[in-house]
Amino acid sequence: MTGKRHSYRTRPLLILLFVSCFAGLLLGDPGPSLGTSPSPSWPLWDHFRHHFLQSDGRVIDRTDQDRSTSEGEAYTLFFSLVSGDRETFRKVLEWTRNNLAGGDLDRHLPAWIWGKRPDGSWGILDANPASDADCWMAYTLIEAGRIWKNPDYENQGRHLLSMIEKNETAFLPGYGWALLPGPWGFRLPDGTVRLNPSYLPPEILLAFDAVSPRSPWRQILETTLSHMGSIAPHGFVPDWIAVTKKGQVRPDPVTGPLGSYDAIRFYLWASLLPSRSSLRKRLLSHLSGMVRHLDRHHSPPLYANTLAGWTAGKGPPGFLAAILPLLRTRGEERHLKSLLHALAMMRHKGLYGTPPDYYDQVLALFGTGFLEGRFAFNAKGNLLLPTRPQP
User: Fold this and answer.
1) C-alpha atoms less than 13 angstroms from C-alpha of 196 in its C-beta half-sphere
2) What kind and span of H or E run contains 333?
C-alpha cells in the first residue's frame, strides 16, 4: 500500500450560537472545568449521532459507500467524552474493539477501514491502522479515565499508546523523530517516507509526553517545528510531505505540494492551543499564507499550492468551521461573525449540506464546539470541560 486517506470530502455543516470564549481559562494548570457550561445540550452532536451513528456504536460515512473508519470511531469517542455521553462512548469503543481490533485493543491497533466487500459481505477492507485515529483514540481513553475516574479506560489508552510508540513512530536519519501514518505502506523503495502533518495535534503530543516521557513525543513535536520552514514555505501546509533518505523535506510523490482536506486540520489543531502558549505562537508564525488569504477573502481556500503560494476554490463548510478558532485567536471578530453567518446559511435539518458529509460535521464539531466553550486544552494537553449542572 502506498498511501491512504482522506476520501471523505466535501459538503456542509452546522452552526450554533457561540458564546464568548474562555480566553483566560484556555491556559492555566491542569483542571477539569472551564466554568459553567454555555448550554446543557449540544444540537450539532445530537444531529450527528442521529444521522451518522448506528445503535451498536458504528459511525457510518453515508456519503462514502456507508463505510466506517477508525478515524470516525476515534473522533466520536472524543465528542462523546466532551458531551458527557458515557453510553455512546461505551458502545463506540465496543464496536471498535470487536470489529476493527479483533476483539482485543490491548493487542491490536484498530484497522483503518471497514465496509462492504466485493462479495457483498461486510468487514475490514484495509487492515493497516491509521496513526491519527490511533492517537485520538489513545488520548481520549486516557482522558476519559482521568475525567471519569475510570482506570479501565486509562489502562486501555496506555496500552494503545504503547503499541503506537512501537509500531508507528520512527527516527528518520537527517530529519528526526516522526509519526508514521501507519505501520506499513509509507516507506517507498527509494528510501523516501511519506508523512502527514495533520496527524500531529500538538495537544495530543504534549499529553503523550507527560504520560510517556521516555518516548519520542516531545522530539516528534520539536522535529515538526524545526522543519516547518520547509513544510510550509509560503505559509500553507500540504496534505502530505515526503522525507528523503537524507532527511530532506520534499513534495509528496502522490499528492504533490497541495494542501486541502487533510491540511485544514493543521490550522485547527494549532489554534486550539492555549492563548498564551509559546508553542501556539511558533506554529501560527508558519501559517502566514493562510492568514493573508483570510484577510483578503474571509474564508479558507479549497486548495493551496504550498510551493508556489497560490490558492484555488472555496473550501466547503467544514473548512469554514475549522478556521473559526484561528480567526478567534487573531481577534478577527468581524470576520468571525461573517463566517458564522455564512455557516448558518448552510444548515439544513441541523447538519450542513445536502446530503450532509461526515467529515464536514466532524470539523464543525471541533470548530464550533471550541468557540462555544464546550472544550479546551491546557498547556499540558489535558482536556478541559465545563462544569455541568447537577440534576
Assistant:
1) 25
2) helix 333-345
Q: Quick one: pLDDT at residue 34?
A: 60
CA dist., res. 174 & res. 336, Å (int): 41
DSSP secondary structure string, 47-85?
HHHHHHB-TTS-B-BTTTTTBEEHHHHHHHHHHHHHHT-
Burial of 40 (0-12, 13-18, 19+ CB in 10 A): exposed
Which pTM does this prediction carry? Answer: 0.91
Residue 85, C-alpha cell as written in the block: 455521553
Task: Give the Cα separation of 167 and 320 in Å (integer).
Answer: 34
Q: What local confidence, expressed as pLDDT, does residue 6 receive?
A: 46
The CA R_g of the chain, rounded to the nearest whole Å, is 19
CB count within 10 Å of CB 17 equals 12
- Asked if pLDDT for residue 210 goes beyond 80, the answer is yes
Average pLDDT over residues 147-160: 98
Q: Give the total residue count for the chain.
A: 391
DSSP track, 117-184: -TTS-EEEEE-S--HHHHHHHHHHHHHHHHHTT-HHHHHHHHHHHHHHHHHSEEEETTTEEEE-SSSS
Q: Active-site positions?
A: 71, 132
Cβ–Cβ under 8 Å, residues 13 and 353: yes
**Residue closest to 344 by CA, chosen among 106, 17, 9:** 17
Query: Distance between CA atoms of 233 and 213, rounded to whole angstroms?
Result: 31
Query: C-alpha distances in angstroms, 223 versus 148, 207, 256?
Result: 33, 17, 21
Model confidence at 24: pLDDT above 50: no
Q: Residue 242 pLDDT > 60, yes or no? A: yes
The whole-angstrom distance between residue 150's C-alpha and the CA centroid of its chain comes to 24
User: Above 90 in pLDDT, residue 14?
Assistant: no
| pLDDT at residue number 21 | 34
Helix axes 317-329, 264-271, angle to 10 degrees: 30
Q: Which residues pair with 186 in a beta bridge?
A: none
CA distance 51 to 241: 34
- Span 113-138, average pLDDT: 98
Q: CA 257, 259, 260 angle in degrees (round to 5)? A: 145
User: To 5 degrees, how large is the angle CA 328–CA 330–CA 335?
Assistant: 65
